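Let's practice the habit of predicting before peeking. Look at the sequence and jot down your guess about where helices and strands might fall. Then scroll down.
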Amino acid sequence: MTSLFDPIALGDIQAPNRVLMAPLTRGRATREHVPTEIMIEYYRQRASAGLIITEATGISQQGLGWPYAPGLWSDEQVAAWQPVTAAVHEAGGRIVAQLWHMGRQVHSSVTGEQPVSSSATATAGDAHTYEGKKPFETARPLRTDEIPGILDDYERATRNALAAGFDGVQIHAANGYLIDQFLRDNANVRDDMYGGSIENRTRLLREVTERVIAVAGAGRTSVRLSPNGDSQGVDDSNPEALFTYAAKLLSDLGIGFLELREPGPDGTFGKTDVPKLSPAIRKVFARPLVVNSDYDTAEAAQAVIDSGVADAVAFGRTFLANPDLPERLKIGAPLNTSDMATWYSQGEAGYTDYPALEQETVAA
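Done guessing? Here is the structure:
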């Protein structure tokens, strides 16, 4: 029987275990979205993951509205990522960059322009800005003739990721961000080739994935989806039909793996009564399938692998607070709890100061 601690081939990436580090926004870059020195240590500490998926990383200024989040569109950003990937590799790890366009989930005070999306919609509530929270703005629908520029941005970010030393990239198509805003029908009311039918609404996902594959190769390209329930106001009337179609097209394109963020009815960071779609997606996706959301014990992760639904599990907040998470899970050691107050703050507190087992032993 397959164990959580067995190796796995995630496309062209050979992972020594199936405990992946999920993407986690942390806000430790500069206002110019350049990675900082403390990010080197943060990722190095977590190199024992089967694979690290970085925090969401902007493909362009237009698409990055989260304060102090990193980007991958400039030479300065590439140069600052290089010591991060080098540190992970020197520690024996593997790391891919998650590529992010936030669509309508940005504020013009951060990006310098009106948000863009599939349609003229707005997210309820407030956006994070450098001046605190401000109400979300109504997005401007992307014109059809602007889509090639978005694809160019993904291509440039992919090339930059490889130049920065990443082992591959993950396309962020989940959580209510730009690609998700095209996928789901409560956010996409277009009447052109990118709206209406499921085939049309998945067109941007297909085109982005094809463009990224052309640069990185299919085996070093992965995708993240969030198929069940509302994500930042983005939802669909027929999620199973939509996401099984999307998963099948991604399988046919030969991506290295697919990651699903699937909260449950008792989720601790988002919850929904919409059933998880991973069992249905498993039937159409022939490559490694990774699940995420509220897996915080080895037993829970092993159970989903034993079920045949998933091949690996991505741990988020649990990895945030436990830099040596694979070892802790393997031996049943106690787990540190993350401090929510420092998730998005600047500085080392709640970032690089969570102890590893060996540090706890010395302290004792």
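How did you do? The chain is about 35% helix and 15% strand.
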